[in-house]
Amino acid sequence: MGSLSYQSKLVSFDESRRTGCFTTLPIRVHSRNDLADAASRQFVKDWAREMGDGRERHTYFSFSPVGNWSSLIYPEAVPKRLGVLAYLSDLGLIHDDGGEGLSIEDAQVEHGDLYAALDPDDVSTMTPDSRAMKTKKLVSQCILECVSLDRELGLKMLAAFRDVWLAISERNSDKEAQTMEEYLKYRSENGGMLVFWPMLQFSLGISISEAEEALVQPIIDAATEGLLLANDYFSWEREYRELQSGQSKRIVSAVDLFIRTKGLSIDDAKDEVKRKIITAERDFCERRDELYKACPDISLKLKRWIDCAGLAVSGNHYWCSACPRQNAWKHADTPISNGVKRKLSHGAVVIKQEAPAKKRKDSPVFDLESSDSESGLSEVSSYPFYKPSELALEAPSKYVSSMPSKGVRATLIEALNTWLHVPSDRIKAIMSVINSLHNASLILDDLEDNSPLRRGYPSTHVLFGQAQSINSANFMFVRAVQDVAQSLSPAALVAVLEELEGLYLGQSWDLYWKHNLACPSEAEYVNMVDHKTGGMFRMLIRLMQAESEVTPQLDFHRLTLLFGRFFQIRDDYMNFQDYTAQKGLCEDLDEGKFSYPVVYCLENFPEYRGHFLGVFRQRPTIATVDAHPLSKESKQHLTACLKKSGAFEKTIACLTDMERDLEIEIDRLEQQTGEANPMLRLCLAKLSVKGIARIGEVGTSK
């Protein structure tokens, strides 16, 4: 087994001791510290431009006299990845600073904004000028770069950043730990340590399996303790002064723990934390050596992982001992690295405003004693006219709206508004209209396809009955058109009506082919998709253009055409991909649907036509008959036919070509507008076929 090699530079013992650093582990700094500093400077500029709250003038970022924070905690990072790591680290720092100045409730709101921004699948409605939307625009390019550099590890890192840290940060913040064990558990979550390790994996391009993680976990636990306590030791004076000045509302530190629980003075408590740091580093080395002794054949990859974990501990320690973030209190006028002096005056606290309580739409209460019965009218004649409750009418629509959603349409609206600048009230109305129409179409699709499931949940008509579901879907169409007429322009109303007509035309042929067992040609299938699926994308673009303040209008025809085709054919492929991967599902075959792979197979390999039509002929075709999925054997046979015909390879090739064409079209629009659109590119990256497992590589069970 080869020995470890390094690209980073070793920091000498004497040099490290000049800052008050006392780590017992070797320290290294990345050879391209300039890349990290450049990314940090870019983040400061981006924050100032997008957020406009001035917080960057009151935050110390990753810069330090001894190196950028990311250069010291990721000294062996792949150089191309160092910049995005520094960018995310500074996002964490400014977010952390903002949270310290807020109440626990307000900090949780801010966590929610960043959580949504870092979620590629977030579908919440955001107004263009909201803080949440600004945050999303800020991080979209960073997310896109992460995914471009390393899709698997990038998504894992972002998921940890979002789901592991932000989703639990500030939870139990009002409960003071009484033991070191309780404290370290809380700090591991609140302090972002659960996201640090996926970030370290991303920096190295190393994927660690669950078994490997379990093997090295005791070593990582010691490293985590060393990282957290070093931060507590060097940040104490800053945090204590900010608490005293009112700039911070709370302090969470091991120093405070020892003062509270052991009655120690500040100096003695700091000495105790120092001893704990040295002990944690010793435990790290001992556990590492014990593992190497017990597993002499341990992989070089794991050795590198463990070694870099130790370098992160020492690098963080060294940075904390020297960085302005933890030490500027010693010199009140020390400027922040971006050239702005830190102010120690009271910061403004954002007060969370409670949303007004929704008014209940209860039926009116009538005083029948004063009715016209006294004048001789019958009881029935005396009943007043009033609008009944909408509970039964809205129940099916609320149910389908509650189902998990890809959120592509909402994301697309937000991304396109980078160019179209539609006012926030109009964007909200457009999103509401599109969601209503889309959900109405889902209810009718499931009925027309006799499908018992929608995204793994019972279809709406299974729960509410066919008649009630149809009535609710029709009402959603009526309300959507009504909303357009009341809230948007006449041009928007024309767009909705024209595209609805196209949607029904496309659906008519989809239903015709299934009912008559007639397989369309590829050209006919694509034309159906252009109207049925593409119509909804075309509608949202036309609605936005009708309300846009930008002139002259951009030509989005090719973008929506390609996007509709790409989205539907990808969905067709994923239906089979889910089946081969999960040994189930494949609802398209249950419905007798002529999806793109089936169309290609039957058009080019007529010998399989009898196989598909024979199976499809046996499925129930009317909603009054209970829908039963095809047998596992039938699905396996039809899937095998598609594999033999090369239909799956053809589908992937088609999607790859369209994805490239979409990227070219985005390039054209960016050049025409002079404005990059990372949110739109991220929307496409989320759907990219590059991250999809190939069906030929996943076998079905026999």
Characterize this entry briefly:
One of its GO terms (biological process) is mycotoxin biosynthetic process. With 702 residues, the chain is an all-alpha fold. It has helices at residues 13-17, 33-50, 69-73, 79-100, 104-117, 131-149, 151-166, 180-190, 193-204, 210-245, 254-262, 266-294, 300-322, 324-327, 379-382, 391-401, 408-420, 424-449, 460-464, 466-487, 490-516, 522-532, 534-547, 557-582, 587-590, 596-604, 609-616, 632-645, 647-673, 678-687; strands at residues 9-11, 27-29, 453-454, 457-458.
Question: How would you portray this structure in words?
Answer:
With 702 residues, the protein is mostly helical. The chain folds into 2 domains: 23-175 and 186-330, Farnesyl Diphosphate Synthase (Orthogonal Bundle), CATH 1.10.600; 396-697, Farnesyl Diphosphate Synthase, CATH 1.10.600. Helices cover 65% and strands 1% of the residues. It has 30 helices and 4 strands. The strands form 2 sheets. It has a two-stranded antiparallel sheet with strand order 1-2. Strands 3-4 form a two-stranded antiparallel sheet. Strand 3 and strand 4 (457-458) form a beta hairpin. Helix 5 runs antiparallel to helix 7 and helix 11 (254-262) crosses helix 12 (266-294). The longest helix is centred in the N-terminal third of the chain and has 36 residues, at 210-245. It is globular and about 85 Å long. Residues 164-173, 333-375, 579-584 and 698-702 have low confidence and may be disordered.
